[in-house]
Amino acid sequence: MGGMRPSPFALDLKNARRTTLLFFLAVFLTFAPMMLLGIRVREPTSWTTIGLWMFISGGCGVLWAISGSIMPRLFPVAIAAQAVAAWSIAKPPLEILRLDPQGFAPLGLIAMFSIATGYACFVRFLNTQGARAIGLWTEMDLAKRIHAHLVPPVRVRFGVFDVAGRSQASGAMGGDLVDGVMHSDGTLEVLIADVSGHGVRAGVVMAMIKSLLAAERERTADGSSPLPLIESLESLNRVLSDLAEPGMFATMAIARVARNGAVQYALAGHPPIFLRRADRTMESLEIGSMPLAVVRNVEFEIGSATMRPGDVLALYSDGLVEVNTGPRGAGPQIGMKGIEMAIAGLPNDSADGQLAALFAAIKARSTDPEPLDDQSALLLRFAATPGG
Predict the structure, then answer these.
(1) How far apart are CA 317 and CA 176, in angstroms?
(2) Which of 127, 139, 143, 210 is in the most buried spot, having the most CB atoms within 10 Å?
(3) 29-74 tens-digit pLDDT
(4) CA-to-CA separations, 64 to 105, 119, 133, 236, 294, in angstroms, rounded
């Protein structure tokens, strides 16, 4: 489907990128003296007049740059503005713009030709190397939109279950998956998966995991109940081992919670799940197995626990655990203890409110200028009453 060509330039000056403003500043300064280089004027000439003409000349240059990069419909405006400005040098409409030109300066004309040629080369560069950069920018933007589609924020309520989760990618596309689904028998399944590496390669594997999980959920044991958790994980691991690139693997924390609060969970090379009780005491669910796609045939271990009204089940990725808290982003890290304390201190709020508080607490302690790894978390709150 056709459309306007994406551009890295931004006209919203309030939110414009620094490089965008720098580009237009460079164009302005390049063209500011252009209209004064080729003429001789009487002495003395007011500095105010010179400044105004430099502003007009630089503004015409910026108008040419805008019409040539993001708004082609402004070409007639740029041509008209340049023509009016050139005509006004000889016959200015305002006395304050009067230069009284007395002829042309050969060196000035040469300088004008040199600047114009240099600018033409600059535009040529933008049309070649710049086009590649724009293509890369477009691909990254597409990857970001794909990631947002594959891993949308989770904000749902299933009866007495209040669930909230989100993933913040460290790049255009992340390798974390956050998901929650209600099975036909009323069992709620929540999970976080973390693919090794970063960027598009990790994102592709993450997309495969999501697709395979969706396919597994279509298979049922008796037409109504989902496959046993251990059988579902082993099948996922076998298929992923066959599809993933050598050296690629994924960790996963997954839990199934029945309506009565009975919990089944598994950890495939993933940090432990935390269970925060209503009285804020913490339990660590740590039974674990190998990551997915490392070995084709793995016997996963399944653990069990029980949730009661007011309890919160917390799943998270190691991107939160490895956040630096030292000077200049260089260790020590928040670590498992820091995550546990942050979860224990969450307010008695909805799952969405608790999730926002968790990310805020992590960010307040972080000294990393930008996230070094994908950061994901999912909270499942067992409410006393449906929607409560």
Answers:
(1) 8
(2) 143
(3) 766 666 666 565 555 666 677 777 778 777 777 777 777 666 777 7
(4) 25, 11, 21, 57, 57
Residue 95 corresponds to which tokens in the numbers above? Answer: 């006395």
Burial 363-379 (b: 16+ CB within 10 A, else e): eeebebeebbbbbbbbb
Report the distance separating Cα 150 and Cα 195, nearest Å: 14
Residue 114 and residue 97: Cα distance in Å, rounded?
Answer: 26
Q: Residue 277: which of 237, 248, 310 has the closest Cα?
A: 310
For 354-371, the pLDDT digits (tens) are 999 999 999 998 888 888
Say what angle helices 18-31 and 47-69 make with each other, to 10 degrees.
130
Amino acid at 185: D
Amino acid in the structure at residue 182 = M
Distance between CA atoms of 193 and 96, rounded to whole angstroms? 69
∠ CA(310), CA(314), CA(316), 5° rounding? 165
